[in-house]
Design goal:
By secondary structure, this protein is α/β, with parallel strands linked by helices. The chain has helices at residues 13-23, 40-49, 59-63, 80-89, 104-115, 131-142, 165-168, 182-199, 288-301, 309-328, and strands at residues 4-9, 30-36, 55-56, 70-73, 93-97, 121-124, 148-156, 202-210, 221-228, 233-239, 247-254, 258-262, 267-272, 275-281, 332-333. Bound molecules: NADP nicotinamide-adenine-dinucleotide phosphate (NAP).
């Protein structure tokens, strides 16, 4: 079968370090037809990395090409709506990076577009494709931990240190207007995606926010309390100015046992009253190949994508509404109003 002729729009960190390593292993499924970055040095060097593909500086020139069937949008995410709308208008399939948008209005417009277009749209939410969380779902479904009633996700890191610095230093992440919600939204959507997939839609949120280090963004700390439609209660603790302590782990509580899912160690540990901890190590794959596999099957075989825009909207909504809830010291319900075509927020 013919590989999909792909345009890469945005040649920054994620394109080079996450997308390209997946794509270069999938030459039978994707051929890079063109790459685009508005600054030439990055466009040129990515084109060289991708085996000498042509490059353009204006994304509309990539969309105008007849030899492009689909595009990956790997831009500051505030551009997702405009570039996706233009791509759909040009008849191209689209994979866009997470989060879906930088505003709820844009996210809602993108979900409407998804419902009304013949081309395939998806969000590159790699956690939806990670073996670690797929295996966690299997263990939960097998009932080993019994009925799950609680979940606590702790994510502690320091975005001003280590490998994180490269993200902090991107121009757009230094600008609050282009990066609303900062790392809480940027990183948090991975967490809410997994919570939604494992425990059902988040239906209420409340929270508290803080700024510990203003170099790490206006809000670098957010504690969220949530409930899900399946009756799971839990919290998500995101601390992006944690000094020394680095943790990224989901704790799951069932009436027969508990699980600790370690994102950094790619392990799942089961604790029950009758046995010591049982540790299972899972394939450390980060899900980028799985995303492109899904995109390929959608384009070539018309299969539905796993990582829809509607799911990404819901992941994003939960975080935006937690910020609002924290600012007003209230609990917000995110239940879907049956009279509305999209999620309605009821205070
Ligand atoms: P980045 O390094 O800044 O990459 C964005 C690129 O887009 C830059 O090279 C930038 O060029 C270029 N650009 C900006 N505006 C443009 C325009 N109008 N036309 C063409 N090119 C333009 O940022 P990043 O860290 O790669 O993030 C990009 C996206 O990937 C974001 O949505 C982010 O959330 C996502 N991401 C996902 C993961 C994950 O694990 N799934 C991890 C990291 C990032 P200049 O720098 O020259 O302005």
């Amino acid at each position: 079968m013919e590989p999909v002729k792909l345009g890469i729009i945005g040649c920054g960190i994620a394109a080079r370090e996450l997308h390209w390593p997946a794509l270069k292993k999938m030459a039978d499924r994707f051929k890079i037809a063109v790459v685009c970055n508005h600054t030439e040095a990055k466009a040129k060097s990515f084109a060289e990395l991708a085996g000498g593909a042509p490059y353009v500086l204006d994304y509309r020139d990539a969309l105008a090409r007849k030899d492009v069937e689909a595009v990956s949008i790997i831009l500051p995410f505030g551009l997702n709506r405009r570039v996706t709308e233009d791509a759909v208008h040009a008849g191209k399939h689209v994979m866009m990076e997470k989060p879906i948008a930088a505003s709820l209005d844009d996210a809602i417009e993108l979900v409407s577009l998804e419902r009304n277009t013949g081309v395939k749209l998806m969000v590159a939410e790699n956690f939806r494709y990670r073996p670690l969380y797929r295996r966690t779902a299997e263990i939960i479904n097998q009932g080993t931990a019994g009925r799950v009633y609680g979940a606590i996700w702790n994510f502690f890191t320091d975005v001003t240190a280590g490998a994180n610095i490269q993200y902090l230093n991107t121009k757009w992440r230094m600008d609050d207007a282009q990066y609303p919600g900062g790392f809480i939204i940027d990183g948090g959507v991975h967490i809410t995606a997994v919570i939604h997939d494992l425990f059902g839609e988040i239906v209420t949120v409340s929270g508290r926010t803080a700024c510990i280090n203003d170099n790490a963004g206006k809000i670098d700390t957010m504690l969220t309390n949530f409930t899900t439609k399946r009756g799971v209660v839990g919290s998500i603790n995101q601390l992006y100015s944690s000094k020394g302590l680095r943790v990224n782990a989901l704790h799951i509580f069932g009436d027969k046992g508990s699980l600790v899912v370690d994102n950094y160690g790619d392990s799942i540990t089961l604790f029950t009253p009758d046995s010591g901890p049982i540790v299972e190590t899972v394939d450390a794959d980060r899900g980028y190949t799985g995303e492109y596999e899904d995109f390929f099957k959608a384009i070539r075989f018309g299969e539905p994508v796993v990582s829809t825009l509607e799911k990404a909207y819901r992941d994003y909504l939960a975080l935006v509404k937690t910020m609002e809830a924290a600012a007003s010291r209230i609990t917000i319900s995110l239940e879907k109003n049956p009279a509305e075509s999209l999620f309605k927020v009821i205070h």
